[in-house]
């Protein structure tokens, strides 16, 4: 039996494979450009703004749904919305008719993804939204489709060329869906004034969370902060450094304000110079050492350490010494 001719030529040369990969990326980029161009259309931009307005006002959650590849995009969109301050949950259409429709409340809004707009699995969700007056937002490329016609608001996506040589596998169309989801989430994020602080509350673990940790969360504080007065002896300063094991000590005035620092390096230079250990540490200290505030990001503190080739950074609030942070503490916490 003969089979239909295919555009795919197997076992191509390396050059042909690279050419294919680049062509796929070029087609995807064209799709993204087409989506960006849609925002220049008054109707598309107005619809997008209405969707933003509805989501901003909703008292419940954004229920995101889709089937197949659109369902995978919907899951990612849900995760992005949730992590950037917009409560969202994914509803699988296959489970909707088996009890999961109950997760949709009158306070929610449903965001439905379907490139064709004709996925039969979405039917129960559409009927439920109509029956209970749940706002339904469609994201589809077909204006006359079932999903588009049933929706209260329809974000009409551009018709794009799929990167698949047989024009079968969803490729560019899902890339464009993903990009619209990101645009939606970031627009909502800025509308809410969602800060790096807020982001850290939702991402306390992992490398991303480490970059958002504040200095006060990692610094030594209280009795763990090495400090002496400027009239303390070099011996006393050395003992204080040894006690705290941070490789240095702060020098403070009578009001607890940071005025200098004395480190392992300063101690080595002092010993080499054969100074008397009874001399005041103020004569050998480094003046106006670097310091950060407690609410600075730990990643910024790390950058400052790298830039100035230091291992110890003091933490001050209103000029008063309140803590110290060592590079090893930052590295141990995963800050980079």
TrEMBL record:
Zn(2+) binds at residue 92. GO terms for biological process: carbohydrate derivative metabolic process; carbohydrate metabolic process. Keywords: CBS domain, Metal-binding, Repeat, Zinc. The keyword Metal-binding applies. Residues 219-279, 285-336 form the CBS domain. Transmembrane segments: none annotated. Residues 51-194 form the SIS domain. SMART domains: CBS. InterPro entries: CBS_dom, CBS_dom_sf, GutQ/KpsF_isomerases, KdsD/KpsF-type, SIS_dom, SIS_dom_sf, SIS_Kpsf. The keyword Magnesium does not apply. PROSITE patterns: CBS (PS51371), SIS (PS51464). GO terms for molecular function: arabinose-5-phosphate isomerase activity; carbohydrate derivative binding; metal ion binding. It comes from the Bacteria. The record marks 69, 121, 162, 203 as: Catalytically relevant. Belongs to the SIS family. GutQ/KpsF subfamily. This is KpsF/GutQ. It comes from Sphingobium cupriresistens LL01.
């Amino acid at each position: 039996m003969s089979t239909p001719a295919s555009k795919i030529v197997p076992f191509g040369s390396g050059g042909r494979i690279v050419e294919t990969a680049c062509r796929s990326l070029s087609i995807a980029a064209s799709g993204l450009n087409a989506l960006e161009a849609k925002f220049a259309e008054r109707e598309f931009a107005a619809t997008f703004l209405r969707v933003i307005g509805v989501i901003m006002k909703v008292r419940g959650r954004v229920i995101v749904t889709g089937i197949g590849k659109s369902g995978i995009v919907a899951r990612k969109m849900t995760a992005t919305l949730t992590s950037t301050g917009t409560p969202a949950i994914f509803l699988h259409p296959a489970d909707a008719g088996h009890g999961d429709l109950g997760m949709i409340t009158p306070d929610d809004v449903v965001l439905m993804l379907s490139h064709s707009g004709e996925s039969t699995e979405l039917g129960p969700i559409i009927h439920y939204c109509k029956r209970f007056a749940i706002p339904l937002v469609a994201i589809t490329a077909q204006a006359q489709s079932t999903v588009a016609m049933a929706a209260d608001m329809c974000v009409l996506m551009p018709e794009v060329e799929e990167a698949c040589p047989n024009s079968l596998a969803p490729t560019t169309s899902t890339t464009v869906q993903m990009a619209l989801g990101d645009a939606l989430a970031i627009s909502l994020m800025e509308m809410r004034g969602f800060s790096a602080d807020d982001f850290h509350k939702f991402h306390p673990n992992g490398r991303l969370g480490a970059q958002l940790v504040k200095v006060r969360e990692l610094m030594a504080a209280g009795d763990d902060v090495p400090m002496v007065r400027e009239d303390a002896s070099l011996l006393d300063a050395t003992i204080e450094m040894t006690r705290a094991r941070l490789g240095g000590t702060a020098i403070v005035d009578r009001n607890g304000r940071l005025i200098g620092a004395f480190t392992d390096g300063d101690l080595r230079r002092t010993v080499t110079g054969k100074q008397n250990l009874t001399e005041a540490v103020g004569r050998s200290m480094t003046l106006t050492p670097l310091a950060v505030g407690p609410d600075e990001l730990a990643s910024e503190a790390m950058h400052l350490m790298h830039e100035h080739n230091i291992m110890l950074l003091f933490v001050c609030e209103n000029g008063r010494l309140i803590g110290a942070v060592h590079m090893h503490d930052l590295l141990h916490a995963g800050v980079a």
